[in-house]
Amino acid sequence: MEVGSTSPLSIQVVSDGRIGMENQALGLAEALQRLSPSATVSIRRVKWRKAFDRLPSALKAPWMLDPSSDPVFPAPGEPWPDVWIATGRATLPLSLMAKRRSGGRTFVVQTQDPRWRTADFDLVVAPRHDGIEGPNVLSITGSPHRVTPERLAEGAPAFAERLDPLPRPRVAVLIGGRSRAHDLPEAQAAELAERIGAAVEAAGGSLMLTFSRRTPAPAKAAMTARLSRLPGWIWDGTGANPYFAFLHHADHVLVTEDSANMAAEAASTGKPVHILPMVPVKKADKFARLHADLQQQGAARPFAGRLEGWDYKPLAETGRAAREILERMARR
Question: Whole-prediction pTM value?
Answer without folding.
Answer: 0.87
